Amino acid sequence: MKNIDSKGHVTGKSLYLDDIPVRQGTLHAVVFFSPVAHAKITGLDLTAAKNYPGVIDIMTAHDIPGENQIGGIIPDELLFAENETDFLGQPIVLVVAESERIARRARQLIKITFEELEIVTDPRKAAEKGLLLTPPSIFSMGDPEKKWSRCKYVFEGSVEQAGQEHLYLETQGAYCYPAENGNLMVHSSTQSPTAAQRTIAKVLGISMNQIQVDVVRLGGGFGGKEDQATAPAVLVALASQKLEKPVKLVFSRSDDMQMTGKRHPYSSDFKIGLSSDFKILSYEVTYYQNGGASNDLSPAISHRTLFHTTNSYFIPDVKATLYSCKTNLPPNTAFRGFGAPQGMFVMESAIAKAAMELHVPASLIQKRNLLKENDLFYYGQKARQVNIRKTWKTLCDEYRLQEKQKEIETFNQRNKIYKKGLALMPITFGISFTNISMNQARALVHIYHDGSLGVSTGAIEMGQGVNTKMLQVAAHAFSIDPKRIKIESTNTTRVSNTSPTAASSGADLNGNALLVACNALLLRLKSFAASMLGATKKDIEFIKEKVYLKGKETDLTWEKLIQQAFLNRVNLTEHGHYATPVIHFDVEKGKGHPFAYHVYGTAAFVVKVDVLRGIYEVEEVDIVHDFGDSLNQTIDIGQVEGALVQGIGYMTMEELRYNNEGKLLSNSLSTYKVPDIYAVPKVLNVTPLKTTGHSLAVMGSKAVGEPPLLYGPGVYFAIQNAMREFNPQYASFDAPMTPEKVLMGLYPQNKSVAEPAKTEKRLLKTE
Ligand code: MTE
Ligand code: LUZ
Ligand code: MOS
User: Fold this and answer.
1) Fewer beta carbons below 10 Å: N end or C end of the chain?
2) Residues 226, 461, 488, 706: which is the catalytic one?
3) Reduced to 3 DSSP states, what percent helix, strand and coil does the chain have, rounded to the nearest 5?
4) What is the phi/psi pair of residue 230, to 5°?
5) Phi, psi dihedral angles at 643 (to 5 degrees)
6) What gap in Å lies between CA 499 and CA 740, rounded to an integer?
7) How far is the CA of 344 from the centre of ligand 1 (A)?
8) 503: Cβ below 6 Å to ligand 3?
């Protein structure tokens, strides 16, 4: 089935926050934010801005009736800075005016004076100074310290990874208008309507039931709106409450890029020990996570890094330590993968380093160590229905990787200017929120008496197609035409206490809640049909809009059945609640069974590097991905393609640069390069692994949103492999691999193109 939004999107009819027709008298707000990264505020002169014609109000922390606090997990983040600012981009003042243009002009008239304080942007420096957001987290199994002596080979190294800007097409924004009796209606571009509702209540000093948050869809979220959409929603609610007027705030791209946090940069140290036959026996890693000025979602992201430390491998002795470091940058936040890409990149760097030193292909070490059934993840969960080896093998067979490797070798022998590289990237991603209590969802189903349905869930549509999947789930449950079903906006008054649509679990959690509601209705309707037909309920089935009795079609149609049920006063509305069974986790011990299941896959990357210019091309990416029993393969393959390209951007061209003063230098699209159509691999193949799915995935269809982003590191190592054909000494691990870095890495001491280096044979061995 096609995505139900396709037509609206291509005809421009789909509605986003900024398309909501504003009410008469709507005011417009802009945020005046800190122009420096760390300072004591010594003076704030708002007079000129206040007096600017058309300005209605200028609001600061003094205007907050409740708490000046928006921290999601830990209450350590102010809505408005008061005496001190700790990142460039931190809100200090809200300017509310008759138009956005007036508000922007008035903003320029605000004068601020400050005493600068020491600015820290580097996580290792922060750790040295004891600037940590939370105490260090350690997960371990066995004791690597005791194992080094038993390893034949031990290698150490350091890894740098920059952040990543979400660049959702729709910037952050919210629109609020007062309803009667002090109640508020809030439209927000958020992945987490309940977080917005809860935080508005806290800041405004009212209760959650006074606030209705409604979301039609987002123009992309990618994690950037899991926590950080809350601030704009609170700001408009605050102004709307005080002024008793509708207030709208939509960030400009430049404000958005400067004010909001991004994927966390990491700086890490690893030590890896291998046996003579390349089994990884021991692994130790220390991560310095650049958290920014406050926690935001960093504690949860730290945990996911720790959970994905060993990627798709079984390692008997592992110790991982994570320092979440407080720096003077905007609070870094959720981004597709949520800390997993960082952990996995360090693991793959360790393998790449070992492979280089041992003169074997990295793929040989990767393959030797892939997870098997019943292996223990080092956080205590037993690996079940493990598909990693199947995806690896299918990939190698179906895409003739051994032959490809030979072709690449021949190519490299014959070419001086171009060098090709191949790398494999296996992935394993745990599905469930790492915070157990978030793994629940609700759904509300109305069957109207004409036989049409209105379905509400807590899922937010942000382009990933969750609404189409919800529609398929309901259509399948009743065996009715999908055209009868409408997926309603996500609304906290219809569906309460929502978890954010995140952790790739939107379809699983909300789909399962929807199934609970549908199944309850189905049982009731079967009883009623049985009473109409003088039969028992177990003999009744609904197939393609018809009621079947003992396997035989009757002339009772869906529409007739519903009409009669209504006239006979049968309840045609149901609410469903779902909580993922099985999962548990003890954070103190770092042990448990945190994930409902894992998603697996393997990708192969072929890149071509131009050793004269340092530029490169992704020639081919082949992927075998474990979708389970996909509900919608068109949507799911689209998710793989999109996430892959986002992962390639992260690992190659997207270079987020802050200067030492904590100012974002790459703060516009002219300085921050994201993948365009030319960055898409020339050839991109996605093969679904043949499998039966998983019982905890909605209708067997495994979560797909984030996992394929984790293929991204494959492109990095493919480029490195190509570079080593020219400069075999190249051994740094510093993402993203921009063309400049490639060029500098190729010519460490003015190495000339005329004398290509001798290269190692890199045969892809199969066991
Ligand atoms: N796909 C599109 N088109 N836009 C998005 O913002 N977000 C990703 C992924 N795919 C995103 C996307 C992220 S970060 C997550 S967690 C999942 O979608 C969330 O949706 P799901 O749980 O329904 O898969
Ligand atoms: N958000 C969250 C997430 O709060 N917890 C998670 O475990 C998670 N995982 C991935 C993406 N977002
Ligand atoms: Mo996705 S990072 O879980 O919103």
Assistant:
1) C
2) 706
3) 30, 25, 40
4) -65, -45
5) -65, -35
6) 42
7) 20
8) yes
Query: Which of 165, 167, 215, 338 for mutating ligand 3's site (highest number of atoms within 8 Å of CB)?
Result: 338
336 close to 220: Cβ distance less than 8 angstroms: no
**pLDDT recorded at residue 759:** 45
User: What is the residue-wise DSSP string for 379-403?
Assistant: TSPBP-S--HHHHHHHHHHHTTHHH
DSSP code for 679: G
CA 726-730-731 angle, 5° bins: 155
Q: How far apart are CA 167 and CA 656, in angstroms?
A: 12
Q: Hey, CA dihedral for 584, 588, 591, 596, is it positive or negative?
A: positive
Beta strands (DSSP E) in 432-550 are 440-447, 453-457, 485-487, 490-491, 540-543, 546-549
- Nearest-atom number in ligand 1 for the CA of 223 is 14
| Secondary structure (3-state) at 323 | strand
Residue 226 alpha carbon to ligand 1 centre in Å:
11
Q: What CA–CA distance (Å, rounded) separates 192 from 188?
A: 9
Q: Is 616 in the pocket of ligand 2 (CB under 6 A)?
A: no
Q: Which two tokens stand for residue 243?
A: 């002024």
pLDDT at 748: 80
Measured CA to CA, the distance from residue 302 to residue 136 in angstroms comes to 10
What is the whole-number distance in angstroms between the Cα of residue 715 and the centre of ligand 3?
22
308 lines ligand 3 (CB under 6 A): no
What is the block-wise mean pLDDT of the chain (767 residues), using blocks of 10 residues? 96 97 97 98 98 98 98 97 98 98 98 98 98 98 96 98 98 97 97 98 98 98 98 98 98 98 98 98 98 98 98 98 98 98 98 97 98 98 98 98 97 97 98 98 98 98 98 98 98 98 98 98 98 96 98 97 98 98 96 98 98 97 98 98 98 96 95 95 97 95 98 98 96 96 88 50 42
| Per-residue confidence (pLDDT) for residue 753, from 0 to 100 | 52
pTM of the predicted protein model: 0.96
Sign (positive or negative) of CA dihedral 538, 542, 547, 553: negative
Residue nearest to ligand 3 atom 4, measured at CA: 223
> H helices of 179-252, where?
193-204, 230-243
Beta carbons within 10 angstroms of residue 152's beta carbon: 13
Question: Known catalytic residue: 165?
Answer: no
The pLDDT of residue 763 is: 43
* 572 CA → ligand 3 middle, Å: 34
* Alpha carbon separation from 555 to 266, 275, 529, 549, 568 (Å, rounded): 65, 71, 12, 10, 19
Nearest CA to ligand 1 atom 11: 222
Q: Is the dihedral of CA 635, 641, 647, 653 positive or negative?
A: negative
